Amino acid sequence: MTAKVQTGQLSSFSNKTLAFDWKGLLRIGLIGGLMAVLVSIIGMVETFHGRDIVGGVITMGQTVLAGAIFVSSSIAASRNSSHSRLSQILGAVVSGLLATATLGILIWFSQLVNLRPIFVNISPSLIRILTFEKDLPGQLVPALGLLLAYGFVIGLFAGLLYVAPTKMRKAVTSGIIWVLVIGLLGELLRTLIVGKPIEESVSWILGTRNQKGVSVIGAAVIFSLVAAFSTLSQMFGGRLGSQVQARKAALPVNAQRGLNATLLLVIFLILWQLPQLFGIYLSDVANTVGLYILMGLGLNIVVGYAGLLDLGYVAFFALGAYTMAVATSTAVGAGRGLILFSLGLTFWEALPIAVGVACLAGIILGIPVLKMRGDYLAIVTLGFGEIIRILAFSDFLKPYIGGAQGIVKIAPIMVAGQNLTRPTELFHVVLIICAIVAFIAWRLRDSRVGRAWKAIREDEDVASAMGINLVTSKLLAFASGAAFSGFAGAIFATKLSSIIPGSFGLLVSINILALIIVGGMGSLPGVLVGALALVALPELLREFSEFRLLVFGAVLVGMMIYKPEGLLPEETRKLELHEPEPGELQP
Amino acid sequence: MAAILTAKGVTKRFGGLLAVNKLDLEIEENSISSVIGPNGAGKTTFFNCVTGFYNPEEGRIIFNGHEIQGLSPDRVTRLGAARTYQNIRLFANMTAIENVLVGEHSLLKNNFLDAVIRTPRFNREEKSAVEEARRLLRFVGLRGIGDHLARNLPYGAQRRLEIARALASKPKLLLLDEPTAGMNPQETNELTRFIRDLRDQLQITILLIEHHMRVVMDISEQITVLDYGSKIAEGSASDIQNNPAVIEAYLGRGAATGLKTTKVH
C-alpha cells in the first residue's frame, strides 16, 4: 500500500499534470460500455423504462444505463488516484465517452444489420430510449452526438464527485440514493396513503395518483433535505453519537441493560402497529419476510454459529408445514384433493407437534452426517432436501399428503375465539414468534453452548480437544435450527391454508443461505437486513421479476468481492472491559 | 513419585508406515519431560494417541489411573490432559478471552435451557468463568488484549494464548507441541522460564516436544528420544547428550563414529 502511494507521488512529481494509464482507462471504459450494452440487449433498460423514478423525467431504465456508465467512470477516476485531480476528472470523462461510444456502436450497428433475430430485445423502442427519442436513421449523427454528450456529462459528474471533498461527496451520493429509493418505491408509498388526509399534503412530492415515482419538485426537495441532513450529521453526528455512547457507557451495567430493553420494547411496539399502516398487501409481504427471518435465524445457528453448511434446510420447513397440514386439515376423505387421515387438531395443538417433528428430523439427519465436513456435508444435506421434496410429490404418499395437489383446508390460527386469517392479523403472531426465536438465538450465542458451536466452526478437532462433545453439540445445532424452520413451516401452512410440494424447492434453501451471507454470517441483525434485502425488495419490485435472479447473482458476486463479511457482520463481544494500554502487549 | 502417564507397547500405523512402534513410556507426576527426535520420528503422533485424536492399534495408555487409548478427545480432556499444537490452532475468529472460555468448557455445567432462561446458575457460572479467563490471560502475560480477535494477535501472543486456553481446563498433564517454534532467542528464554514457573506454581506435569536442544536440556528432568517410531534412548539431559544412538539418529552413523573418535583423541 505504502509502496503504491510512494510510486504514485513520484510519478505525479515527474509528470505533474496529465498522467494516464491509457490501457487501464480503455479497459474500464470498454467494460462500462459492455455493461451498458448488456443491460440493453437483455431487455432490462426497456422493461425498466416503464417505471418512472422522477415523474416524466427520469425512468429506471435510464438510471440503470447511467449507473453502468457512472460506475465505470468512478472506477476510472479511482484508478488514477495517484495522479492530479485534473487527470482523475479527465480519466472519468474519457471512460464515460468510451462507454457511450460502445453503446453508440450498438445503435449504429443495429441500423446496418437487423440484430433482432438474435437479440430479440433490440427493438425500435429500445433504440429510441438509447437515442433520446430521435428518429433514426435520419438523425443518426445528432443522436450519437447526444449520446456522447451524455457520456461526457456523466463522466464529468463522476469525476467531479470523486475529487470533491468527502463530506460533499457523501451528501450528494446519499441524496441521489434516497431520491432513487423513494422514486422506486413511490407507487408503494402512495398505496399506503391513498384515501387518507395525508394524501393531499404530500401529493406535490409523490405526484398525482396516476403518476409513478416522485415529482420533479419532490425529487429536488428530497435531494436537498437528505444532502443537508447528511452534511449536518457528518459535522455534528459523529460527536453527538460518541457523546451518547460515552454517556451510555458511563451508566451502570443494569441501567444499560434497562435502556437496551426499553429501546427494543419501543421498536417492538412500533412494529406491532405497522399492519394498520401497511394494509393487506404489505402485511402479507411482511409476513413472508417474517417467515424468512425465522428460517434465517435457524439456519444462522447451523451455518453461522456451528459452521455446518446445510443446503437442504427447506426440508425442515416442509416437514413443519406438512405436519401442520396433516394434523389440522379438515379435507379428509377418499376423493380428489382429500387426504385419508388427519388428526383434526387446532393450530395451537398442532404447533408443538410440527416443531417437534422438524426437530426430530434435524437429529435424524444429523446423526449420519456427524463425521462429515464442508463440501461433503453440503452434498448430503442437499440430497436430504430433495428426498423430502420428492416424497411430498410422490404417488406413494399421495393418499396421506396429497401428492402434487397438496393439502387444503388447513386450520387457521385461533386466538380468543377468533380466526386470524387476514395478513394484518397474522402479522402479530409472526412478530411474536420472530421475537421469541431471535431472543433464544441471541441468548444462545453468548453462552457455553454458543461458544462450543463457534469453536466447532473454527476448528472441529481442537474444539473436541477442549472437552466439547462434538456429537451432542452438532446435534443440538441441527435440532434447534430445524425446530425454528419447523416453526416457520407451520405458520406458512396455516397462512396459506393450503400447501403444495412446489413451495419447498431447492431455491428456498438457497435463498435462506444467501440472506445469511448477505446479512453477515452469525449476525442476528444481519438476518433481518438480509431478509429485507433479499425477500422484501424483490417482492415489492415484482414487475422486474424476470431479472430477479440476474440481479440476485450480480449482488452476491459483488458482495463476495467487496464485502465478504456481510452487510452487518457478527460483532465481537467485549468481555475484558479494559482498554489496552501502550506497551502492555509485551511478553 | 507415581507415574501420571504410562504408555505400554503403544503402536500406531498409517497403512504400511509404523509411526509409533511399541513405545513404552512413563511420565512422573509433577515432572517436566521431553520427547525429542528427528522430523517424522512419531512424536506428534504419540501426542495425538495420548490426547485421543488417534486410536493406537496396539498397546495401552494409562493416564491418572484410567485407560485412555481410543477415548474421544473430549473425554481425555475431561480426565485432565490438555495440549497445544505445533502449528498454532486457535479459534481465529473468536476473541482471546472467548478462546480461554472455550478452554473452560469441560468445567462448566450450564446447558441450553440455562442459557435461554439465564438461570442463577448460568449467571453465577458465566461470571466466574469470565473472571477466571481474565486471570489466566494475566497469568500468561496477555493482560489487556482479551477482546482482540485471536487471528490479529502477534505470533508470540498467540503461543501464549494457546497455553492459557489449555490451562483453562485445569489439566493435570499439559502437553506442549514445540512451544518455542518460530520464536527468537529472547522469547525462547522467557518461555522456558515460564514453563518452569507453570510447573512450580500450578503443580502440573508437563510433557513437551521440542527441537530447541538448549530448551530441552535446560528444563527437562527426563528425555525420551524417538527415531522411526521407536524409543532409542531415555534418561537425563547428560545421558542423552552422550548417547551414540541419539547422535547417530540426528547426524548419521559417520558423525556418531566421528564424534567418538574425536572424543578419544
Overview of this structure, please?
The complex is a heterodimer of chains A (587) and B (265). Chain A has 23 helices and four strands. By secondary structure, chain A is mainly alpha-helical. Chain A has three domains: 1-163, no CATH class; 166-257, no CATH class; 294-504, no CATH class. In chain A, the strands form two sheets. A two-stranded antiparallel ribbon of chain A has the order 1-2. Chain A has a two-stranded antiparallel sheet with strand order 3-4. In chain A, helix 4 (60-79) packs across helix 7 (140-163) and helix 14 packs antiparallel against helix 20. Chain B has 265 residues and is of the alpha/beta class. Chain B folds into two domains: 1-80 and 171-265, Rossmann fold (3-Layer(aba) Sandwich); 90-170, no CATH class. A six-stranded mixed beta sheet of chain B has the order 6-7-8-3-9-10, with helices on both faces. In chain B, strands 2-1-4-5 form a four-stranded antiparallel beta sheet, with helices on one face. The longest helix of chain B has 20 residues, at 120-139. Chain B starts with a strand and ends with a helix. The interface between A and B is large, with 40 and 58 residues.
